[in-house]
Design brief:
- There is one protein chain.
- The chain has 18 helices and ten strands.
- The chain is mainly α.
- The strands form four sheets. A three-stranded parallel beta sheet has the order 1-2-3. Strands 4-5-8 form a three-stranded antiparallel beta sheet.
- Helix 2 links the parallel strand 2 and strand 3.
- The radius of gyration is 31 Å and the shape is elongated.
- The protein binds one RNA strand of 77 nucleotides through helix 5, helix 10, helix 15, helix 16 and helix 17.
Length: 462
RNA sequence: GGCCCGUUCGUCUAGUGGUCAAGGACGUCAGGUUCUCAUCCUGAAGAUCAUGGGUUCGACUCCCAUACGGGUCACCA
């Protein structure tokens, strides 16, 4: 039974990189009739953000990457929130102490969490004390200035087998004696993740390449416990246009941002799938079902791709264009209620008609509204010059002559205007819509109706 | 700085020793269709496969070095 997981930390907004990881883990689990779980890694109390967990799940739901087990969907391997598993970690930490694979180290509190400057080689200063070390985790927590570190071999290389990159050898000096339990009794990622992955039956660990350097420590821990090592896959990390790791500073990383910009979750997922993976037939647009059936973890590329918004926007347009009108209407309604902008002034029939002519002209849902301003009740014709006025008068005459109000008869009328005033389309377009270009004019006027069109003309002429 | 991972058109990529003087997609440019704008269609420009050495009859593909990029070196994940 394949079991995969993502392990987000509730430290802020949901990151697009988390979704990228979720996509691979989800697809692989689905392909193999396995389970995909979400474990909340909240062992860092300093960085914890209230409400962040809820927002992660909201993003997961939006993308439809529904998990089988998680803190909100508790299965038999729970709890799925690390803060609720402290006793478990302590038990296993004690096992390590008993086997002498871990030891208590003395550290003054003041050193906690300080970053270092690595432009030059740094020699870590060890604190010394004459105190006897604590005997148990409980005693350690009580004392406050002790931590638990793992032991690492001084004479042997540690080999990490990565399914994408092959064997990676780490010499002893690269494998430091990682802190396992912090002085507050909370485990670090390294202990917690290994214990949880094992206890939760994770078979394939798919995570970002930033974890490669700490992988040997994880391998060691598995060995200390005598556990099987799940298959390890280190995926490339998404990059900014300047090639650095995708960050808020240089690009858009917040899932919420993509939603507010009118991107469709399916399109984002499709685009993300293309970042590091290629369809066997080199197809660019494919469904999640197709992706699941074709996807293989081992085919993931090793190079960090640059997240290119231009191509995502194109992809989004592709998705919008292939939707049926009813779905697009529903999608637009949901989007505009999400961004607090209503489409309610338009009745259903009108909205359908507008959407069908707007469909090929928008790449994101957000582009819809600016395109349809001339359909809103408060819109009017734009007559600014005497020439405009003359055109409007002819327009009125021609409109009055039309008996059957449809796009063909309207187009004919418009052609007459263009000819008699020898003007070009953008001028006429501006008078009617206020913009130089946009949705097709005959269709727009047909939807608007003869009555409304004449009404607006009269108002503009008076 | 040490170590680790990587390096094919601006970007995403195909390519696993000969079929590649490198194919596709986005973007760009030009043209066609057309009531504007899009869609759609056609075409063009765009990569001496980071550089230099090997190995081989033959290398984008294998090996080594150099350069460059990224990651990591926290009581953060």
């Amino acid at each position: 039974m394949v079991r995969t997981r993502i392990a987000p930390s509730p430290t802020g907004y949901p990151h697009i990189g988390t979704i990228y990881q979720a996509l691979f883990n989800y697809a692989f689990a689905k392909k193999n009739n396995g389970k995909f779980l979400i474990r909340i890694e909240n062992t860092d109390r300093a960085r914890f953000v209230e409400g962040a967990e809820e927002v992660i799940f909201e993003a997961i739901d939006w993308f439809g990457l529904t998990e089988n087990e998680s803190s909100r969907k508790v299965g038999e391997y729970g709890p799925y929130r690390q803060s609720e598993r402290l006793e478990i970690y302590h038990t296993y930490a004690q096992e390590l102490i008993d086997k002498d694979f871990a030891y208590f180290a003395y550290y003054a509190k003041a050193d906690a969490g300080q970053k270092k400057d690595y432009t030059h080689t740094v020699v870590e200063k060890k604190k010394v004390t004459t105190q006897a070390p604590p005997k148990t985790i409980a005693e350690m927590i009580k004392r406050g200035d002790w931590i638990l570190r793992m032991r690492a071999p001084k004479d042997k290389d540690t080999v990490v087998h990565d399914e994408i990159r092959g064997e990676i050898v780490f010499t002893p000096d690269q494998v430091t004696e990682q802190v396992l339990v912090k002085s507050d009794g909370f485990p670090t990622y390294h202990l917690a993740a290994i214990v949880d992955d094992h206890l939760m039956g994770i078979t394939h660990v798919v995570r970002g390449e930033e974890w490669i350097s700490s992988a040997p420590k994880h391998v060691l821990l598995y060995r200390y416990f005598g556990w099987d090592i799940p298959k390890l896959y280190h995926t490339p990390t998404l990059r900014n246009p300047d090639k650095s790791k995708l960050s808020k500073r240089h690009g858009h990383t917040n899932v919420q941002w993509f939603r507010e910009e009118g991107y469709l979750p399916e399109a984002i997922l499709n685009f993300l799938a293309l970042m590091g993976w290629t369809h066997p037939e080199e197809k660019e647009v494919f469904s999640m079902e197709e992706f699941i059936s074709l996807f293989e973890l081992k085919d993931i590329r090793q190079v960090g791709p640059i997240f290119d918004l231009t191509k995502l926007t194109w992809m989004n347009g592709e998705y919008i264009r292939k939707m049926d009108v009813a779905s697009l209407v529903a999608e637009l309604k949901e989007f505009y209620s999400f961004v607090d902008q209503s489409l309610e002034s338009l009745d259903e029939k009108t909205l359908f008609a507008i959407v069908s002519i707007a469909q090929s002209r928008i790449a994101t849902l957000k582009e819809f509204y600016p395109l349809i301003s001339h359909f809103l009740p408060e819109a009017k014709f734009h007559i600014t010059t005497d020439e405009d006025k003359k055109i409007a008068e002819t327009l009125k005459d021609e409109f009055l002559k039309i008996e059957r109000w449809n796009k063909e008869t309207i187009l004919e009328a418009l052609r007459i205007i263009l000819k008699t005033h020898s003007i070009r389309m953008p001028i006429l377009y501006t008078i009617i819509t206020g913009h130089e270009r946009g949705l097709p004019l005959p269709e727009s006027l047909e939807i608007l109706g003869k009555e409304t069109s004449l009404d607006r003309l009269n108002k503009a002429l008076s």
